[in-house]
């Protein structure tokens, strides 16, 4: 991959101009900020880590990462790691999956009603997808619906593709409308009492083993190799000692 044709000093200068311009635009349009009781902005030092080279991607330039922090040496440490990987050929990235989820819940009078609804759900998926996708012209596409019965409730894990958007708000809007339409169309047939837009099956804004097993958002695999020479020259230790340090830290973390 051809690295960025500009030197690092010029890259940092150009990025600084962009961020300063964006900050000026933001602070000058306080009335357009969509948070409650907004009184102003806080400034945090913003530094650039990198560059990091992506192996096997000739189209992309080297990657720089903005880090907002007051912690001294953090950016230098990240950049040193990038330098070690760059000297060893760069890193590799593969996208494994991409799907944003929402976990609505349908409420029934008893578990038997919940079971009947869950069993009938595959026959409703096309209609649910049509309703959900009607809320966005091109972006939201329903991929799967997975039901889980908990007592008299049926939790649905609805997974969508959202194009290049993160999609949290997009899938909420889509799921809300689809659930409203499903309830309106099938309430009498399946005795649907109520529904909630989220029952935490999607693990929104909380740590979850479910999101370890199946990523919510974009799941990527990133790997690279640090050569003996780069490790010794840039990180100041042997690869054996680096491995032992990482192993020791993991063991201590497990005990803690």
Could you characterize the architecture of this molecule?
It is a single chain. This protein is an alpha+beta fold. The chain has two domains: 62 residues, no CATH class; 122 residues, Hydroxymethylglutaryl-CoA reductase, class I/II, NAD/NADP-binding domain (Alpha-Beta Plaits), CATH 3.30.70. It is 41% helix and 23% strand. It has eight helices and eight strands. The strands form two sheets. Strands 3, 4, 5, 6, 7 and 8 form a six-stranded antiparallel beta sheet that branches. α2 runs antiparallel to α7 and α4 packs across α5. The radius of gyration is 24 Å and the shape is extended. The relative contact order is 0.13.
Characteristic terms for this protein:
Alpha-Beta Plaits; 41% helix; 2 domains; Hydroxymethylglutaryl-CoA reductase (NADPH); six-stranded antiparallel sheet; 8 strands; extended; alpha+beta; 256 residues; two-stranded antiparallel sheet; single chain; HMG_CoA_Rdtase_NAD(P)-bd_sf
Task: Show the helix and strand layout.
Layout: H1 8-27, E1 46-52, E2 63-68, H2 74-86, E3 91-102, E4 105-107, H3 111-120, H4 125-133, E5 141-150, E6 153-161, H5 168-190, E7 194-196, H6 209-213, E8 217-224, H7 228-235, H8 239-255
Antiparallel strand pairs: 1-2, 3-6, 3-8, 4-6, 4-7, 5-6
Helix pairs in contact: 2-7, 4-5
* Helix-strand makeup class: alpha+beta
Describe the biggest sheet? 6 strands, antiparallel
Mind telling me the C-alpha Rg? Answer: 24 Å
Strand content: 15-25%
* Assembly annotation: single chain
Query: How many strands appear in the DSSP assignment?
Result: 8
- CATH architecture label name of the largest domain: 2-Layer Sandwich
Q: Could you tell me how far the N terminus lies from the C terminus, measured between alpha carbons in angstroms?
A: 42 Å
Helix content: 40-55%
Order of helices and strands: HEEHEEHHEEHEHEHH
**Unreliable segments of 5+ consecutive residues:** none
Average pLDDT, rounded to a whole number, is: 89
CATH top level class name of the largest domain: Alpha Beta
Number of helices: 8
CATH topology grouping of the largest domain:
Alpha-Beta Plaits
Domain module tally:
2
CATH superfamily of the largest domain: Hydroxymethylglutaryl-CoA reductase, class I/II, NAD/NADP-binding domain
Q: What general form does the structure show?
A: extended
InterPro entries: HMG_CoA_Rdtase, HMG_CoA_Rdtase_NAD(P)-bd_sf, HMG_CoA_Rdtase_sub-bd_dom_sf
Pfam family, one: HMG-CoA_red
Protein name: Hydroxymethylglutaryl-CoA reductase (NADPH)
Organism: Fusarium oxysporum
């Amino acid at each position: 991959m051809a690295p960025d044709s500009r030197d690092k000093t010029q890259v940092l200068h150009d990025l600084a101009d962009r961020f300063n311009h964006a900050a000026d635009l933001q602070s000058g349009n306080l009335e357009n900020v969509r948070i409650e009781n907004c009184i102003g902005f806080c400034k945090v030092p913003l530094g650039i880590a990198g560059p990091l080279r992506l192996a096997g991607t000739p189209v992309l330039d080297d990657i720089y990462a903005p880090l907002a922090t007051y912690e001294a040496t953090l950016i230098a440490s990240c950049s040193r790691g990038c330098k070690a990987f760059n000297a060893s050929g760069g890193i590799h990235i593969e996208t494994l999956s991409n799907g944003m989820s929402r976990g609505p819940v349908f409420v029934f009078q008893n578990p038997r009603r919940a079971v009947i609804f869950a069993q009938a759900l595959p026959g409703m998926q096309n209609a649910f997808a049509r309703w959900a996708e009607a809320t966005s012209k091109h972006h939201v596409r329903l991929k799967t619906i997975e039901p889980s019965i908990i007592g008299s409730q049926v939790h649905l894990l609805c997974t969508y593709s959202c194009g290049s958007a993160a999609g949290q708000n997009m899938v909420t809007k889509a799921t809300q409308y689809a659930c409203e339409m499903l309830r309106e169309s099938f309430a009498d047939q399946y005795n649907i009492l109520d529904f909630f837009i989220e029952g935490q099956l999607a693990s929104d804004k909380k740590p979850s083993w479910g999101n370890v097993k199946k990523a919510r958002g974009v799941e990527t695999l990133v790997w690279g190799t640090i050569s003996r020479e780069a490790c010794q020259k840039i990180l100041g230790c042997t690869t054996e000692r680096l491995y032992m340090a990482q192993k020791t830290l993991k063991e201590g973390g497990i005990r803690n």
